């Protein structure tokens, strides 16, 4: 029996009466079905023409296919010997184009819940997708993530920032806190690049050592300046792998930690007296301001002053550089901005059923964030010139000079 052809006049009338162009009952859906079936029939005809045996047509197999214009039932032609392998829509394929997958991944990368993804796909295409389908689509990111995690890196990075963020992940039937270790680099072109994403039971200098070893194994042979938080043993972990690297401890972390030990009634005044220390024009001026801070507050808060003194070598590294380099290294704000992006993605999720469910979401977020990292750091050419002087010879090969 000849199948009815798509009626353009009828379609036009339907559009004029307000019927949608796409979706489950969209005007275009029958046309896409007709064109797809015609293409499959042509594929089978070509297959049979090349077949020297007595093979012939053998009816149709029905299956439901999801497309960008809606869902429809497709009649896939068969051959008697079962040797026909359709290419347009393969035997177990249920989606006509990657458009739906791309839409699911796009929504997923914005932190959209599975429930809301289902709603949006239903609204856009008239297709009901299950949570299992969404999981299968988003799981396509996992091999890509693994490849990204093991990719080769540049031989030298002028700056890197290292920090961790914590999430609840289900492990042996209960939710436990695990640390995501994030490394953000600035390459010799002045562009930001997320170098790695690692997961561990907890944040610690010992694990950071394994992370840095992985960087070295992936090709990073030199780092000029590393910005880190105040984790004990962090500096030693870096210097064990990269002994020439200058380590700048994050001043903002130090300030936050200091204020925890200052009484609320004194915090405003203490901060006013602390500003001349970290905002000083020179290291000498900063040390003079630190002396004044100790003279005024040392008796009240000896733990705070002692912390600044003990960590001063790594807190004061940035004073030797001009303002446009200081802005990059004195804090881990750049990597904290990445973590803020992560928190936006995960804010509706109390915990994750497994490690991959978290990692693939963060990776999707990285892909989104990195699209905006097209411009180099401000005043990069000046910064690079200064770095070439401070770190004589170490940038020559990377800059081909």
From TrEMBL:
InterPro entries: Transposase_mutator. Coiled coil: none annotated. GO terms for molecular function: DNA binding; transposase activity. It comes from the Bacteria. GO terms for biological process: DNA transposition. Keywords: DNA recombination, DNA-binding, Transposable element, Transposition. NCBIfam families: transpos_IS256. Required for the transposition of the insertion element. Belongs to the transposase mutator family. This is Mutator family transposase. It comes from Thiomicrospira aerophila AL3.
């Amino acid at each position: 029996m000849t199948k009815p052809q798509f009626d353009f006049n009828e379609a036009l009338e339907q559009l004029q009466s307000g019927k949608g162009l796409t979706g489950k009952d969209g005007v275009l859906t029958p046309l896409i079905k007709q064109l797809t079936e015609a293409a499959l029939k042509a594929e089978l005809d070509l297959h049979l023409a090349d077949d020297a045996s007595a093979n012939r047509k053998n009816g149709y197999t029905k299956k439901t296919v999801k497309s960008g214009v809606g869902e429809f039932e497709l009649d896939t032609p068969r051959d008697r010997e079962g040797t026909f392998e359709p290419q347009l829509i393969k035997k177990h394929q249920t989606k006509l184009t990657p458009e739906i997958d791309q839409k699911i991944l796009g929504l997923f990368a914005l932190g959209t819940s599975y429930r809301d993804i289902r709603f949006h796909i239903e609204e856009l295409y008239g297709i009901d997708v299950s949570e299992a389908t969404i999981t299968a689509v988003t799981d396509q990111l996992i091999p890509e993530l693994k490849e990204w995690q093991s990719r080769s890196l540049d031989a030298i990075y002028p700056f890197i920032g290292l920090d961790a963020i914590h999430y609840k992940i289900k492990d042996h039937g209960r939710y436990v806190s695990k640390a995501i270790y994030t490394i953000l680099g600035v390459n010799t072109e002045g562009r930001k690049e997320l170098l790695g994403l690692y997961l561990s039971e907890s944040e610690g200098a010992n694990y950071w050592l394994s992370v840095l070893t992985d960087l070295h194994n992936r090709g990073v042979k030199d780092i000029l300046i590393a910005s880190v938080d105040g984790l004990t043993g962090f500096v030693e972990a870096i210097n064990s792998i990269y002994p020439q690297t200058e380590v700048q401890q994050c001043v903002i972390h130090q300030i936050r930690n200091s204020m925890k030990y200052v009484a609320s009634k004194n915090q405003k005044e203490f901060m006013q007296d602390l500003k001349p220390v970290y905002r000083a024009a020179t290291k000498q001026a900063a040390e003079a301001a630190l002396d004044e801070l100790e003279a005024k507050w040392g008796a009240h808060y000896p733990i705070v002053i002692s912390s600044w003194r003990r960590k001063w070598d790594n807190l004061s590294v940035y004073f030797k550089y001009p303002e446009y380099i200081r802005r990059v290294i004195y804090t881990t704000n750049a990597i904290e901005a990445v973590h803020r992006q992560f928190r936006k993605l995960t804010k509706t999720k109390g915990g994750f059923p497994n490690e991959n469910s978290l990692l693939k979401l963060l990776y999707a977020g990285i892909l989104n964030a990195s699209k905006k990292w097209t411009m180099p750091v401000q005043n990069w050419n000046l910064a690079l010139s200064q770095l070439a002087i401070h770190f004589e010879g170490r940038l020559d090969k990377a800059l081909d000079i």
